[in-house]
Amino acid sequence: MTQSVVVVSARPEGVFDGVGDFAAALARALGETGLDASLLTAGEPDGFARLEPARGRHVIVHYVPPHFTGASAAAAGRWMAQARRDGGQAVLVVHEYLPPRTTLRRRIASMLLARRLKELIAQASAVVVTHGVARDDLAALGLTASAHVIPVGSNVPVIPPSPHVVTPLSPFVIFGQPASFAPALVRAVATDLAPLRPVVWLARSADEIRSWAQREGVGIDRVDVRPGRPAEEIAAVLATAAAAVAPIVDGVSTRRTTVAAAIAQGLPVIGTDGPCTSQVLRDSGAFALSPVDNAQAFVEQAGCVVADATLRQTMSNAAHRLHATVFSWSHIARRYRDLLEVS
Predict the structure, then answer these.
(1) What is the CATH architecture assignment of 4-153+329-340?
(2) In angstroms, rounded to a whole number, what is the distance separating the alpha carbons of residues 114 and 118?
């Protein structure tokens, strides 16, 4: 008898929501392993209260704080508890957990969110996070000492490689929203790289980029900003890029679907080595890394990569290996099957 699993997220696929897209891709990947996998969208504000019971099916619930207010968090906890009473496993995937605790108001909000999250974790048979820092944070906060680290995968299709040769017109590509980027590094890319070589910035919202750039004093006039493009168009840009540029403020990591997308396409990645960067990424050979606070080194890394075809090929080969062993959906699905105790 085929075993069943329901993957639940607050938002649907295809609305430029990374968690919604991830949940949909995970359901497809689990289906490809032979499970009867389906996707449900809980929605707001009372989505979990309206969901049909799991009725013996395993459940994977994707958690992001804004979609789990008091009422919806309580309903989600009841729904997960019922799923377990009916004989299924209940896996809680914690994508984000607490806001920065930089003000009194945020500290109070964090205390409330931590209490709600702890109540949800109590109903889960397993907890998943997407990078090691989150696992350590949840343990330090007393929420759970046994979270499993499973990377994210790419939400962008992979265009099969053709024997293309990177030409001088091939662009650098930045993929992602500015909130995750270090302003000084983006400024260096826009100032020092864009005048010499095309830089394409793929993102969800042009308005968000413009307001961020104005606030941070980053001039992006020479950067080709392409917001809100479909996944197929994003894939086509990645497939013809010379390299990906990832000026991520907390380092390239297994939590970033944009990094997963570049690696899936076999792109060399000029990135940052930050607190969320795991050793497996550092050792992979797919990244040219520099400290988050060293913009000059970041730009120099980009110049070295784009000037050396042999280095780019070596990094591309390493990216394909890293994808197969860490970021591929088949690998991710196997990890989740293990948590569901499915043979």
Answers:
(1) 3-Layer(aba) Sandwich (3.40)
(2) 6
